[in-house]
Amino acid sequence: MKTRAILIASMLAACLGPANMAHAQQQPKSVCQTDPAFHDFDFWLGDWRVTSRADGSFQGTNKISAIENGCALREEWTSTNGGTGQSINYYNPNTKKWRQVWVSAGGSGYLIDFDGGFTEGAMRLEGKIFYYKQGTTLPFRGTWSQNPDGTVRQFFEQYDPDKEEWTVWFDGLYARQKKGK
Question: Residue 24, CB half-sphere, CA atoms under 13 Å: how many?
Fold first, then answer.
């Protein structure tokens, strides 16, 4: 049986040639790996130390990983007070938009669901924030921009219907964590 498999492999190699044989054994790449739009948010990948842009105080750590062969990003947040949250971020080639769905049970709990895209050198998403305990939903938007030094600014705003204006919800600076920390 083993010699038969060797014979068949030899015959395929002779018919296809070495280059085509190697290609026949490779898995095709997914659209997520070949479409550049799936990589618009790659600048956010990594292990981050997050500080407040207002006063430089340490806010927490965030790990952003590519998952499902580059079809999505997973965010894992831990704040200094032990609060956590996670998001899934993905590009939809049918709508040509990025979407983030964020869930956090910390405090009274909230969910953020927004979408958009990479424009003017930054990832910009708009949608809603849902506060579980209060039962309220408000317009919400976020911008991620990479700085020349490799840090990333994450700037979130929430619409205040009483004041009829956008207010800062979070303004943080992401710096890559050093290995071993």
Answer: 10
- What is the pTM (predicted TM-score) of this model? 0.81
What percent of the chain is predicted at pLDDT more than 70?
84
**What's the chain's length in residues?**
181
Check residue 30 and report its DSSP letter: P
For 18, the token pair is 């070495």
Q: How many CB atoms lie within 10 A of CB 7?
A: 10
Q: Using CA atoms, how far apart are residues 103 and 105, in angstroms rounded to an integer? A: 7
Domains of the chain plus CATH, in order, are 2-29 (no CATH), 35-176 (2.40.128.20)
Helix (H) or strand (E) holding 161: none
- Residue 169 contacts by C-beta under 8 Å, 6 or more apart in sequence? 129, 140, 156, 157, 158
Q: From CA 139, how far away is CA 181, in angstroms rounded?
A: 36
Instruction: Name the more confident of 172 and 32.
Output: 172
